[in-house]
Write a structure and sequence with these properties.
Elements (H helix, E strand, L loop, with lengths): L1 H32 L2 H6 L3 E6 L3 E3 L3 E11 L3 E3 L6 E2 L2 E6 L3 E4 L5 E11 L4 E5 L3 E5 L7 E4 L3 E6 L22 H27 L16 H15 L7 H20 L8 H7 L7 H19 L6 H18 L4 H10 L1
Parallel strand pairs: 2-12
Antiparallel strand pairs: 1-3, 3-8, 4-10, 5-6, 6-8, 7-8, 9-12, 10-11
Helix pairs in contact: 4-5, 4-8, 5-7, 5-8, 7-8
Length: 339
């Protein structure tokens, strides 16, 4: 009987060893048949951990979203909506990036603060992370595990009678509490008196700043500047804005020195208004209006004039200066010779 039991036990042990051996071989064999996508997924880890699984209504709890992947992996961090099944996102931190000491792993994480004002059981569904590994064009994804949050209400004893809301308590206002306000008021008064004293002591004189007149006639400087602008061929090289700004600024500077009108600071309409009543005739006024308005369109409305308009602006600038420059004896001689 004993020998029979020994033989049965021996057979059972041999079968167990055989089963274990087959299972080990099957496991080792399966490792070689695992596809690449499964293996590569093992070195990427995602998680969505909460610091608690139950709260009272209105309380806040934290959730940490995290993904760890090999260096060089392109990660598309998920955007969590403002509410998740009656759970409201109160605050979210910036996405922090941590690199391991050897540079082989990158960890991205974001901390969220959530709350709920409805009691019950709420599921935070799996959150999906998308990523692309270095050297691969395919996009893989991993999802976090779902978690359950229990929101409890505050228990109310309905057997007891309801009580009125207590009125606010009257707390006496002490001198110690009033002292900061008293000192602040005194400081403000002293500061005002000091400012008034300093203003009376150091009265500023109003200085009338007038543009310094150049040593040369204004029209000579303007004509020379226009000639330089023409020789630079700015609009032909594509510098349209600079070209019209130069022409406009030259004319405005000429007006300042010729008619004592602060044209560099005035708008186009203001400049034209201040020139009313001067020696400028209608022809000169129309040419000036064309130059300044075209420059405004180029500078502020990004207009693109055609070639004849560029040339017309420069021609009007020359003519405006010649029509408004001071008349000299030589001019009279030229007019008499021409007649």
């Amino acid at each position: 009987m004993t020998n029979l039991k020994f033989r049965i036990s021996d057979l059972v042990n041999k079968k167990v060893h055989a089963i274990v051996k087959i299972a080990c071989l099957a496991f080792l064999y399966s490792l070689f048949l695992i596809p690449d996508s499964f293996v590569t997924a093992q070195d990427v880890k995602v998680s969505a951990k909460t610091d608690t699984n139950q709260i009272r209504i209105g309380e806040q709890f934290g959730m940490n979203l995290c993904i760890t992947a090999p260096g060089g992996t392109k990660i598309f961090f998920p955007t969590v909506p403002d509410s998740i099944h009656h759970l409201e996102v109160v605050k979210r931190s910036k996405i922090d990036t941590l690199i391991s000491a050897d540079g082989k792993l990158s960890t991205l994480q974001q901390k969220l603060v959530l709350t709920s004002f409805d009691s019950g059981y709420y599921v935070i569904e799996p959150i999906t992370f998308f990523f692309q590994k270095a050297g691969k064009n395919d996009t893989d994804s991993l999802s976090t595990e779902a978690s359950l949050i229990t929101v409890k209400t505050i228990p109310v004893d309905t057997t007891k009678a309801f009580k009125d809301i207590k009125q606010p308590l009257d707390v006496p206002f002490t001198f110690r509490e009033a002292l900061p306000y008293i000192l602040g008021g005194v400081l403000v008064i002293l500061l005002i008196l000091l400012i008034v004293y300093m203003l009376k002591k150091t009265k500023k004189k109003v200085v009338d700043i007038k543009p310094k007149k150049p040593s040369r006639p204004a029209h000579e400087i303007a004509l020379e500047a226009l000639k330089n602008t023409e020789n630079e061929k700015l609009w032909q090289q594509g510098f349209i804005k600079k070209y019209h700004s130069n022409v406009s600024d030259i004319i405005r500077a000429y007006i300042e020195h010729r008619f004592s009108v602060n044209a560099m600071e005035y708008t186009t309409d203001e400049t034209l208004d201040h020139l009313k009543g001067t020696i400028i005739n209608d022809e000169a006024r129309e040419k000036l209006k064309y130059i300044l308005q075209l420059a405004d369109m180029v500078k502020f409305a990004k207009a693109q004039p055609i070639a004849p308009e560029h040339e017309q602006a420069l021609s009007h600038a020359y003519n405006f200066i010649m029509l408004t420059k001071p008349v000299t004896p030589d001019d009279f001689k030229e007019r008499e010779a021409a007649s």
